[in-house]
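Give me the fold.
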Amino acid sequence: MKKKRFTISMKIRIFVVTAVFIVSMSIGLISYYIGIDRIDNYIKRMTFNTAENYASLVDPEYIAELRKTAETEEFQKLRAEAVDKKDDSIIENYLKEKGLWDKYASTRKEMCNYLDNMEDIKYLYIIVLGDSSALYDMYLLDDYDNPLTQTGFFDDREPELKGIDTSKTIEPTITTGEWGWLCSAYAPICDADGNIICHVGCDFDMETIMSQRTSILLCAIFVPIGITVFMLLLTIVYFRLIFTKPVRRIVEESKKFDPQNYVPDDENETNHYGKAGVIDIYTKKSNEITDIYDIIRATQISFIDYLDDKAKLEKDKQRYLNILRQVETENKDKKDQLERVSDKAYRDDLTQVGNKNAYLKKVNDLNRSIEKGAGKFAIAMIDLNNLKYINDTFGHEAGDIYINGSCEIVTRTFTHSPLYRVGGDEFVVVLMGEDYRNRDELVSRVREDFIKSYQNTRVPPPERYAASVGIAVYAEGDTVDTVFKRADQAMYAEKMLFKMKNGSYR
């Protein structure tokens, strides 16, 4: 079963729908929050203005006297008694006794009339607010819905007032609690000197507005969803018309392209492109899809042309290859001859190591390295001891064995450096790389190997190899020749010690 692909068409549709949904949802929610913010600000301002307007109608001198009376211990005891007996007359009689009742009654009536004429104002009252650290506030005067015992009642401070500096303007707040959704504002009542006596509290009923907000929010959510669904349907139809259908046709026609149907050797074939299935459809529009079609067609045509050219080149190539094979056969024979001659020119016939010509070539290479500042090498000079004695006593064939055996000891030790035979019994090793870094250890090893070979009396004299070894390291300012001479001097000094210790036939 063919796995369904996640096509470009599907991706673009998802992108368009997602973008429309995000934009429309964002606009809806932003509009919603901007709208409710404006409504909240309007209600807060209106609630505060209501409290402020009523505060301007109240007699501050009377309110100051009423507060002073309500805060006395005597009044609070009477108020407690009135609460217990549920008898408002106790408060009324006390206020009459203090000459405050008539003004109290008229102020209360005015408050109720004001409240009745203000639509959606739920509560209107006069309250004494403590400082920012107060836990309780005292209700001084309320409407008819509250008993007279409410006068002078200390109640828990409302949560929105906790920690508020009541000596300054109090910002209106919208809260919900046991009284429902309310917008509360407090306007100060001041005496002639501008001192705050108490505050007029005003509570705006927000229940209806809050319920309306839910409807508005649902509208802000579902309208974008509806717009998104509509755009999805529109996108499917429109996108299929301008993109999916022409692209699908191009894909289907492109699948018919099969270069194997092209026969390059058929010179009479006049429809190479059509037989190979080169795409050929009519497109009247000029857009990006047309560009894609043109590119595909041009690519297919180029490929068929390439096959045609390749077939022609293949014929020419085969003809040239036959000629080249003949030339290569002749050149190979000449090259082998040159390599044999070149190898013989730089290799010692007896030991098969480099000869003097090879050493001189190496000297030139080393001098060029020195000129470039890359001189890092050492030269070991090796001179065979007693070779003349072997030749004179046992013959030159034994001497050749002696030379080859000594050469084998040297090559076995200096495995990473070239060895040259520069004389009948003289060898030069150019120490480089790893051999150069381990030169002291290697020179000591080759000397020990020659000593052990020379002291091995169980073999005939032509196999008791002996040699003197001297080494010199390149230093700044040297040439290859000066390094060679120091190595030769070191070798000569060691040869003298060998002669003093063992004697010499020479």
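The radius of gyration is 58 Å.
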